[in-house]
Every structure is written in C-alpha cells, then in structure tokens.
Amino acid sequence: MTPSNRADLGKDPSHVSGMFDQVAKGYDRTNTVMTLGNDALWRAATTRAVAPKRGERILDLAAGTASSSASLAGSGAQVVAADFSPGMLAEGRRRHGHLPNITFVEADATDLPFGDDEFDAVTMSYGLRNVQHPKKALAELFRVTKPGGRLVINEFSTPPNGFFRGFYTFYNAQVLPRVARLAGTNGDAYDYLNESIRDWPDQRTLAGWIREAGWTHVEYRNLSFGIVALHRARKPR
C-alpha cells in the first residue's frame, strides 16, 4: 500500500500536490458520493458564470482531473487546464485528452507560466483554499487576464444559517472521512479537506481579498445553502 501523503494547514506545495497525486484516480467518484451529486450542479453553475465563448482563451486553474475544463471546452473555447499535481493532470489527460481544445499545463498558482493579459477568463474551483499564499494566486490570476476579462472562483464557504452550519460541520468532521475510506480513497486527504474548509474565510472576506488584488465588480452568490460560494469579478479595462 502506498504510504499516505498527509497535507496540513501549512499547505506545503509538495505535500498538497503529493496528496492529490494519490487520490487522483478515485477523486471524481468520491466527490460525487460525498456531495450527493451536487458537484455536477456546482460545475454547471461555474461554467454558466464563466460564460465561455468560441474563440476565447480560458485558464482553468486547479483543474484537477479536468472535468471543469471539459465543461468549459464544450463551448468551443480554447481551455488551458492547469494544476500543480502531475497525478491529477495525468488522470485529466486520460479522460479528456482527446478534446482538441484543451491544453494541459503543470503550474504553480503563485507563479503562473503565462504572460500578462493572455486570457479572456480565468477560473478556479476548490483550489484556492489549497494554495499556501492565496492572495498571491489572486494577483497572478489578475496579471494573466486581459483587461475587461472575467474571474470566477468557486470555493467551499460558510453556510450563513447557524443550524445548517452546525449540521454541515458535523458531516465534514464525522461522516466525510469515513465515506472517503469506504469509497477506497485516502481518508487522510479528506481529514485535511475538512480542516482546510473549517480554516477558510467566509464569503465576504474572500470578496475583500479579490478586491485587494485589483479586481472590480466583485460579487458572490451561495450554492447549496452556502456550502460553496461562487465569486465573480472583472479586470478593469
């Protein structure tokens, strides 16, 4: 059995990347089970928010197994699926490498290997939380986006309803890691997932970080009672 690569809230890039390498093959299946199928709904909402168009160039950062990239590529846009986990990218290529308008790139969110003003839209789903310096990642996303371009961040967040928030906290702490283990996935990775969600700031705080990075027209809306929040913004022209 491969030893567990347990990430922690220090979010050392090599540890987090290694952890995702280990869970890559079962990642999508486990997420579908644990979210009761909501992951597909959240992915569709993210694609609608990005509003990809044929001929546009879109960066899907923290693309993982490229399910989100494939959804964006359905519009005919040219999509760059970027991730710092080689294992995730390999699984993405296996599943979606046949799509001619997806390019796979290994990339560090805080030091992107792209020029200034390259992309019409940039998006990141459930990945900003795993970056050691998330404000630097938001600045890098700003740098590589064309003036007038779009940002969409979908991330786990804080349910505003106190009763539901209590239930959700219990589910994450007690149920989610057990489900992950039953699904044959590295349960330690989902222990980390719970810790990272609990430690992550709420919707308004993240919106403030996005503004600090230079983005304008910042807004967000909750999905599934605030389990996740969809943040949108623009780069000034």
UniProtKB/TrEMBL annotation:
S-adenosyl-L-methionine binds at residues 65, 83, 108-109, 125. GO terms for biological process: methylation. It catalyses: a 2-demethylmenaquinol + S-adenosyl-L-methionine = a menaquinol + S-adenosyl-L-homocysteine + H(+). GO terms for molecular function: 2-methoxy-6-polyprenyl-1,4-benzoquinol methyltransferase activity; demethylmenaquinone methyltransferase activity. InterPro entries: SAM-dependent_MTases_sf, UbiE/COQ5_MeTrFase. Pathway: Quinol/quinone metabolism; menaquinone biosynthesis; menaquinol from 1,4-dihydroxy-2-naphthoate: step 2/2. It comes from the Bacteria. Its EC number is 2.1.1.163. CDD domains: AdoMet_MTases (cd02440). The keyword Transferase applies. The keyword Methyltransferase applies. Keywords: Menaquinone biosynthesis, Methyltransferase, S-adenosyl-L-methionine, Transferase. Belongs to the class I-like SAM-binding methyltransferase superfamily. MenG/UbiE family. PANTHER family: 2-METHOXY-6-POLYPRENYL-1,4-BENZOQUINOL METHYLASE, MITOCHONDRIAL (PTHR43591:SF24), METHYLTRANSFERASE (PTHR43591). Methyltransferase required for the conversion of demethylmenaquinol (DMKH2) to menaquinol (MKH2). This is Demethylmenaquinone methyltransferase. It comes from Microbacterium bandirmense. The lineage of its organism: Bacteria, Bacillati, Actinomycetota, Actinomycetes, Micrococcales.
